[in-house]
Structure formats: C-alpha cells, structure tokens
Amino acid sequence: MDESLVKRLEAAVVRLESLSIGGSRQVAAPEDGGDAAATDPSIVAFDDLISQYVARVTSAAEKIGGKVLDVSKAIAEAFSVERELLVKIKQTQKPDMAGLIEFLKPLNEAIGKASALAEGRRSDFSHHLKTGADSLSALAWIAYTGKDCGMSMPIAHVEESWQMAEFYCNKVLVEYRNKDVNHVEWAKALKELYLPGLRDYVKAHYPLGPVWNATGKIAAAAPAKAAPTRGAPAPAPPPPPPASLFSSETAQPSSTAPKEGMSAVFAELNSGKPVTSGLKKVTADMKTKNRADRSGIVTAPEKGTRAGSSSFSKSGPPKLELQMGRKWVVENQIGRNNLVIDDCDSKQTVYVFGCKNSVLQIQGKVNNITVDNCTKMGVVFKDVVAACEIVNCSGVEVQCQGSAPTISVDNTAGCQLYLSKDALGASITTAKSSEINVLVPGSEPDGDWGEHALPQQYIHVYKDGQFVTTPVSHSGG
Prior knowledge:
The chain is of the alpha/beta class. It contains ten helices and 14 strands. Helices cover 35% and strands 21% of the residues.
C-alpha cells in the first residue's frame, strides 16, 4: 500500500516538473469530466509511463547536464503535452480537419523545441540531441485516424520512429561505453522509454488509435481567416499538401498517391518549426515508368564521372526514385538525415551514389544494396537477399537490423558496420580498404556493443610450394 502511494506521488511530481518546463505556456483548467478522464485507466497508465521511464531519462541527464539535460527536459515536456491531449480526447468529439489541426498544434510546438536544439552548429552532444529530437516523432501516433490517414498504425509508427533515432543512439553507446557510464545510462533509458515503454502502452490502450468521445464537447476550430474584400479576385487554391508526417522539407510527396483529409493535418503540423525526423517518400508519379519526361532506360554513367570527390556537387540534382519498378536510385543527396524507402520488396535493388552527410533508412527486404562514392553517409536497412556492397566511399556507417548473407567493402577509407544478431553469420569481404570496424551486439540484451577492427596488413610467406597469407598481429612481447 505504501509503495503504491509513493509511486502516485512520484508521478504527480514528474507531471508538475514537466508542466513547469513550458514556462509561460498556460494550461487550460479542467472542465466538466476532467477529473473522471484523469482517473481513466489509460491516463493512469500514461502517468506510470512518465514516472517510470521519462523520470529515468531526466535523472540520467541531470548527471550529464548541458544540452543533454535541455533535450531531456524537452522530451519530458512533449510527453506531458501528449498526456493533456489524451485527457482532452476523452472529453471531446472527433473534430474535422481544421479542428484536428488546432488540437494537435501544442504537440507539434513541443516537438519543435527539441528539434531546435538539434539544429545549428555541431556540438559535442550532437548525437544525443539528434536521438532525442528524432525519437519524439513517435508521439505522433496520436494523429492516427484510420488506414487511409497516410501513416502507419500506432504500434508500428512508434517502432519505426525509434528505428530512425536508434541510428544516433547507437553512436552514443559506442562513443561513451568506455568513457562515461552516465551517457550510456541515458541512451539506454531513452530507448526503454519507447521500446518497450511507449510501444507497450499504445499496444495495451490504443492499438487502433485514440478513441474520441462521441457525446463530448466540440473541439475548438482554427481561427477564421479574414474574408477577401468585395471585388477582389479569389486567391488561387493552395497546392496539395505532402502526406509525409513532420517533414523537414517542403513538397516531398508520399510513396503512395497523395491523400486528402489527414494529409492536411500533417501539412499544418509541419508549419513553424519543422521536425527533422520526417519521412521522405516517393509517389507513383515520380517513378520512371510513369514519367513522360523519361524514357525508362537506365544508362550507366561514364566511368570518369565517378572518380572525382566533388561529384556530388556537380553530377546533377538529387534523386530518390524507383526506376522501371526494379531499382531504387538515391543520388546526390546532401545533408538529408531523413531519407526513407518504405515501399520496396525482395526483387528490387537499391543504388546509393554521390551522397554526403545524409542518412537513408530502407524499411523492408530488398535484393541488393550498393553504396557508391559516398562521404559520411549512413545507411540503415533490415534485410538483404544477396549482398550489401560499399565501394569508393569515405567515412560511411552501415547498420543491418536483420540479416545479410554477404557484405563487401571495396576501395573505402573508413567504414563502420553495425550487425544484428541475425547478421553475425554474414561473409564480409574487404579489398583496398582501411579503417574497417565491425560492431556486434553483446551477449546480454542490454549489453554493450563489441567493436572489432578488421585487419589491413598481411604477411605473405612462401611455404611448401605456395604463399601462405596471414593478417599482421600486433602483440606486446
């Protein structure tokens, strides 16, 4: 009994601290039914999520301080805002598009604060800030209204959002595993906040999205715009909004045909401070087979055009498209940390060329992946049928979350390979490459990653009529 009381008090303290972070932001007083909604099992469970998981993140951040503490407070504030919205949903009828835009605006503003911290000049804690900012897109599950709304179902959305943030979270774990245990504790606490924390909460209470109150009050609509003066021509209709959620770029279509309705919500959420963890997708009209200005014939570039290190600034415009239904082409992307290919299958290949300072996530099994002539490029993929090839690259990082029978690295300086447990049996081939490190998961579920440097130097000895080659081993005496 005493332990239960202590947990309730801790939850109340965490909520008060989270609300105080918002500064001058005013919190509406609960109306009729507010007390009943606050005691609903789903709201109580969200309070437990905050007290158990969010509190661990902020507690670990306090030991580090600085910008890590700032982004952790922004995370706590975003979860607090989501709790307020969950309470209001139980008191409110499902609004129309304009009303839903206005309803979700506080959450977008809270997420924007974390994104603002991750922008600008690179700091010592850039990976922490990117992890925190990207992870908050998981809270957008609350915007799910049905299978035609343009986003994954709530549970899948939480998992997919964390996968993007995990790319930077793993960098924190690798960088600080032997330097500072506080950073490792923070990274692990943040992961557990989403997996299993938020994912299990959504699975238990909102697997099909939020449930609105059919007999509740009507949500406040967005402020009406001023009517045009008499005699003035009516303004032209705006272009259709993008279907991607929390996109940091404008006019990036979805991988399926643009949808009406909820697409407008996502476009409005994108106003103001954009969230950098948005998804970049490809529409059917961007595929080569459907474009009138393309013949559909894929021509091989001249060999000389790939030799220069400045090819990504001179070779042409950026591309992210499916050609002839078989080959995904990602070219000349610079500074894009939110590229996503999600409409793929095991018969298609992915070719990444001339990209710099970008991150590509491949959500699904593909036949082959080639990363060619890229600099400081990150690629995260699930499964590959044939091989993942890295050639003519510099400072790249590749993470396999599923299985890959073969990984080859050719003429590359600096490559980090992150392998899942299912990919430990992969055959890794290297040629004319240096600084190749392979990181594998620990034996324990929460254990540290093990780092292994692949040999670069070899000894060739003529023995018994043939040369015997062995890697150079540096050992002390």
